[in-house]
Amino acid sequence: MHAKSSLVILCFALLLSACSSEKNTFPNRLYHNTTAKYNAFFLAKEKIIELENLFQSQHQEDYSQILPIFYPVDSATIEQNEALLKEARELASKAIDWHRISKWVDDSYFLIGLIDYYQANFDDAINTFKYINVNSKDKDLRHRSLIQLLRIFTDLKKNEDAAFVIDYLSKESKINPDNKFLLFKTLAYYYDTRGEINGKIGALDKSLEFVKDKKDKSRINFILAQLYKREDLDALAFSYYGEAEKGNPPYERSFFAKLYAQQVAELNKSKDLQRVRNYYSSLYDDSKNRDLRDVILYERALFELKQNGEEEAERLLTLAAKEEGKNQIQKGYIYEKLADIRFDLKKDYRAAKYYLDSALVYFKPSDPSHSPITKRKEVLDDYVIHFETIIRNDSLIALSLLTPEEQELIADAFIKGEEERLLREAAKKEEPKSSGIFENLLAFSGRGSGENFYFDNAVALQQGSIDFFRNWGNRTLQDNWRRSGQGFQSAISEPEQNIEIKPSPSDSIQVEDEKPLLGQLPDKESLMAQIPKTEESLKVLREALDISYFELGKLLFLDLKEPDPGIGYLENHIEKYPNSVKKPESYYLLYLAQTEINGDARRYVERLNKEFPESPFTFSVNNPEGATGNLAYLESSKKYEEAYSKYYSRQYQEARSIIRSTLEAYPLTRNTEKFMLLDIMVSGKIDDRERYQSRLENYIQNTEDTGLLNMARNMLIALTGEKPKTEQKNEGLEAVARISEEGDDRKSESDSEEAEEVTPYKENPNQTHIFVIVLEPKQAAEAKGLLADLENFHSQNFSNARLRTGNMNLNSENAIFIVSPFNNAERALAYREKFMQDFNTSSLNSSDKDNSFLISIENFQELNKRKDINEYRNFYKKTYQ
């Protein structure tokens, strides 16, 4: 008994001594190695593995693009799992502090470096991995740290540091298979960021020699297949797609591997077109592919495009947009391709713009397609503004020239035409029914085809709603606001160019599938109210047309590379608005366009010299070989200093001589506007007052340099003692909505306090309105149930209103959720009041609700262009609150 007690005491004493982290003895090392590995280090590593698995599970693969080599480190996931990382850091730190003599200390430092990397503390992570490389005796861990350093340097675009690490690792021996696999993947990532496709393919191919996980192997094979397909190496792509199907990959990857393998092997080369189409049909009919039908229709549309079947491709893409789909980004590609067809093949720039609007709804700012689409859309946004201004204003002016009786007849005809159109659309939605035996038997009892049941018959429903409208007026809300905004006017007159006018193909703020329209007709009074009745109203419309004819012609020629329609709009501009301040520039653009198509450019040279001998555009056409670029800019800068010196010393004629000779030698440089203002300053000294004032006013209306514009304004104020009465730029466009929507119920500018404010927004209470909720992009991504909550709110409180919901990214700081349409501001205000009182959702707090606002259609288009929500809020508070 005594011996046993002694043994227990001895063991206990040994255990106590082993707990010390100072004594480097065998029992100590054994204890600390065991407890560090299986407690703190193990638990910390498991938490990091849990986070990395979240990156993978929450990442939605975009198979239309080359898959990323590493699953992206999602900042939102990092923020949501801060507690997890904090706990992992604490555990790894304990493994270091409590078990200093264990062999897992350096591994724990590695985990802390990873945590810093995931939390974007890159400097700390770099220092940690460098420390491990210098101090650790574990060769495998040193290699692993160097590989992680290579990834960080690649992330940060520190190519020289990355190249140094690659060189260092290339000289290391005995790199274990796991590290070799990770090294070659990281090398592929490095080459990918540098755009070196051959290096990327070689590194990925080499990584396959060391991969152990079958799912990793499948994914790398898929990426290689995509890369070879992009390089038109179809045989290699086919082989790697086949390998990607092995290893029990996710069904979606297996589906795309089969689909793309068939494409590179047979579909694109097959002469049996029907067999190819049958292949796509079989994929579509397979119930396992229900969530991928949008992809199948999209790929078939691409196939039809290669067969020059643009109409069929557009039809298929339209169907694809209506499929629910599993990956929402696919909708973005569908709308983008629809835009391509309209832009490249049909030159329908208006439809292309609206399709791109819809595409952007489905792309995040970080997606590769977001930035190029945004840039493409800039020109098309301007095109649509000016195109629709011409359609609307020309029509309104034409209507204003008719007698009231004629106007009423046209309004009646338009409403009747809308009735017929709605009935035709309803008829198109009636699909042919089955002619099977059972259906035929039902037909004999009067129940066949469903057409005898009122609520199954779209035409009957539409006719009923039209009859209701005739008797009771328009009790429901406008549904397709883009079409209703321009339909009446465009029915009256067409633009002089032969451009097809169609309803908007897609709503940039309305992403739900279209439902059948029920009898939405404009009332006669609202149509008549749009027609201008005063000379002031007509003047505003004409000013906007002056701008739009010029800008549209310029845009078509310079940006869209369409000289012929551009020439048409520019010639219309100078014919309809011969006194426009933009006339010399129109002449110049016509000169350039006629030169490009080998037309009669000389007549515009003669007109410029005759009508505008002092214009910089005249100097340019007189000296088409004049120097341009940086050299011309530098030389003209020296001449400007010389001319200004002469002006300052009151040698005005000498100053003018230098100005004119410089403009002739170096026309249209970055200094041209400075020279023109200096020439006007000279004019103020040696010419009569009237000429000086006229030149200043023209300069103010034409210059785009803010500093020079302010200087010219001050000069004019000093001359006349009052501010310029008009500033043509943008004024006409901003006033269009007020004139077209409010009719005669307007205050004159002199009576309105708001007329003096610098705001692009106008009060349009009778115009269709939108209700807007603004959230930060991160908050919007988390508000997954908001649209569903809004739909439930509408079904309970506005069941007959046919309200639509949608969302889009306005800019990088703001995502917006939208409810539309409301016929006027009054109805929109009533909706907001009900929303503030009764709408409840976990996705919004009270501040989010308070920040919601209303906006008219015209103002929304301006907001979508300017992207400045605070600017609109100031207007909103004064106008609606």
TrEMBL record:
Q: Which residues form a coiled coil?
A: none
User: Which regions are flagged for Basic and acidic residues bias?
Assistant: 739-750
Identification of the protein by name: Gliding motility protein
Q: Which InterPro entries match?
A: TPR-like_helical_dom_sf
- Cleavable signal peptide: 1-20
What is the organism field in this record? Rhodonellum psychrophilum GCM71 = DSM 17998
Keyword set includes Signal: yes
Q: Which domain of life is it from?
A: Bacteria
Q: What UniProt keywords are attached to this protein's entry?
A: Signal
Q: Which residues cross the membrane?
A: none
Positions of region (Disordered):
737-761
